[in-house]
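Retry 2 of 3 after timeout on previous attempt. Resubmitting structure tokens to design endpoint.
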């Protein structure tokens, strides 16, 4: 979701910086890089320390995400990755799933506010699996819900952890270069969903 459907990472970065600063923690670039593609409980323990109780981890994550949604709300439609709505519309007859490490509240926020929910036959978030990305569980579960063999699926990813997850599940991977300048090992790299090479490549699958 983040970085593939919604160009949200700049606001996630800003929200983590603002929230962490309240506790005297300055988020540097290395911390931001470790954030991409990971679940909030992993990020909170990374930023705030492993000594936190599960309740404290949840409270920090939920508070940061409330701040993020406040910031994203006014700009959500213009923050969609270019061409993604048109791409989903062109392929709406295919079984499409969202497999995301994002918090469930953020998933619902995007799908409702941007009116994207009808496009997805399955939505799997990080709280529905035991092992987060880069483990393949989330992609395997999404394929299972769709009733499609993983090797017949194409995953769209913007993070290194996500690419590893999809590849480990046996899927072809399209790297969306919204977060990183390159994603080594993917089957195709695109700037966004308006990239002219995307549809011809998919047609050969």
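Retry 2 succeeded. Sequence:
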């Amino acid at each position: 979701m983040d970085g593939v459907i919604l160009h949200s990472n700049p606001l996630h970065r800003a929200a983590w910086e603002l929230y962490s600063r309240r506790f005297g923690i300055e988020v540097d670039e290395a911390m931001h890089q470790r954030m991409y593609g990971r679940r909030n409980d992993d990020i909170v323990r990374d930023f705030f320390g492993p000594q936190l109780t599960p309740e404290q981890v949840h409270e920090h994550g939920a508070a940061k995400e409330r701040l993020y949604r406040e910031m994203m709300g006014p700009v959500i439609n213009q923050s969609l990755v270019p061409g993604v709505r048109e791409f989903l519309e062109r392929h709406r007859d295919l079984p499409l799933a969202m497999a995301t490490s994002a918090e469930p509240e953020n998933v619902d926020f995007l799908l409702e506010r941007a009116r994207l929910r009808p496009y997805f036959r399955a939505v799997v978030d990080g709280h529905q699996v035991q092992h987060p990305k880069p483990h393949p569980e989330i992609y395997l579960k999404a394929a299972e819900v769709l009733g499609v063999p993983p090797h017949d699926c194409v995953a769209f990813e913007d993070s290194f952890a996500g690419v590893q997850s999809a590849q480990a599940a046996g899927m072809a991977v399209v790297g969306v270069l919204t977060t990183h300048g390159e994603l080594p090992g993917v089957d195709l790299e695109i700037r966004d969903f308006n990239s002219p090479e995307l549809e011809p490549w998919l047609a050969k699958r």
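Attempt log closed. The chain has a mean pLDDT of 95.
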